[in-house]
Amino acid sequence: MFERLCLFVFVAFLVCLQAWLTPLNLAANEIMTTTYTYKTIGDLAIKVDVLRPDDDVKRPVLVNLHGGALIMGNRDHSGRLMDRMLDAGYAVVTIDYRLAPETKLPEIVEDVVDAFRWIRGAGAELAHLDTSKIAVTGGSAGGYLTLVSGYLVQPRPTVLVSVYGYGDLIGDWYAKPSPFYLAQQGKAMTDAQARTLADGPAIADSQDRKGDGGAFYRYCRRRGLWPKYVGGFDPSTEAEKFFPWMPVKNVTEQYPPTMLIHGQQDTDVPHEQSVLMAEQFERHGVPHRFLSIENADHGLRGISSKDKDRIYGEAYNFVLKYMQVE
Q1: Helix (H) or strand (E) holding 318
Q2: Helices first, then strands: H and E counts in the chain
Q3: Pairwise CA distance, residues 229 & 155, whole Å
Q4: Assuming Cys at both sites, which of 85, 87, 161, 291 could form a disulfide with 137, CB separation 3.0 to 4.6 Å?
Q5: Euclidean distance between the first and final Cα of the chain, in Å?
Q6: What is the CA 187 to chain-centroid distance, rounded?
Q7: Tell me, what's the pLDDT at 3?
Q8: What's the rounded Cα separation, in Å, for the pair 174 and 225?
Q9: Kind and range of the H or E run holding 151
Q10: Is residue 50 helix, strand or coil?
Q11: Cα dihedral sign, 203-209-210-216
């Protein structure tokens, strides 16, 4: 009788242990992708994709915010950190948001905030998400939005990984002509073409735009017009109107732990942008780590795949440190 009781207790222990470990172990089931509409503006459906193992287990969440200068891109499924988190049994949520210049910065950020509200509400039920802790990552403009989520999303995310992101919107790098883009051969728009594109209908996926978003971005960078066209304000006369949307102006001691990853030779988003954020984190006592990568350009171009694996492995460990199940 005693032996049977011990066996029963042991089996019950194993069942409980498996249930506790499941969200953080390698996913045994095939990864499925499900698309949801989290917001509708007029006729425009703004969507998220949830990537997760094909089961009903409530899984912790990594939110990915795509890049593209807030002008280009869509809810991207690729990324070394995303792949690692999926392998670890996490759910990954990738978000669309309205794009500039058809939509301006305050409304773009509003979409991102609303996406987090959906994740914690309807999304948690529909997609079986454990939203008690949420990690956020993104590259370039996605890195910028990741940093924005650290103070505008409430409750605040648990941990952030900003990859070659930025916290300043009105510095010379964006508000004056870029020497790098002035030297490039790619075709840019005329003033009239830029105005026509900006007056177009709202979109949340650059594939739905009739104009050339890349040419528009080159136009903005060659003339120092990104803040005006994307933000909707003139940085030379209305600088303070940008401050609510600038992470470098909004770090407090309540800001989430953050990892910054940035190439020292970045020709698009200056390495200094992550330096400025690291200085604010240090000033306010925010737990952080800054991986400053020698010889790396934007997108970490210029370094080996092995080095990228190492960097994203460190980002993965940083996320897990703060996402541990209690």
Answers
A1: helix 305-323
A2: 12, 8
A3: 30
A4: 161
A5: 35
A6: 28
A7: 53
A8: 7
A9: helix 141-152
A10: strand
A11: positive
Q: In what order do the strands lie in the sheet with 258-263?
A: 31-41, 44-53, 91-95, 59-65, 129-139, 159-163, 258-263, 288-293
What would the 3-class secondary structure string for 83-115 be? HHHHHCCCEEEEECCCCCCCCCHHHHHHHHHHH
Amino acid at 251: V
β-pairing, 258-263 vs 159-163, is: parallel
Angle at alpha carbon of residue 215, lines to 210 and 217, rounded to 5°? 105
pLDDT, tens digit, 9 for 90 and up, residues 151-201: 999 999 999 999 999 999 999 999 999 999 999 887 889 999 999 999 999
Residue with tokens 């070394």: 80
Structure tokens at 213: 């978003």
Residue type, 279: E
Rg (CA), the chain: 21
Over residues 284-323, the pLDDT tens digits come to 999 999 999 999 999 999 999 999 999 999 999 999 999 9
pTM: 0.90
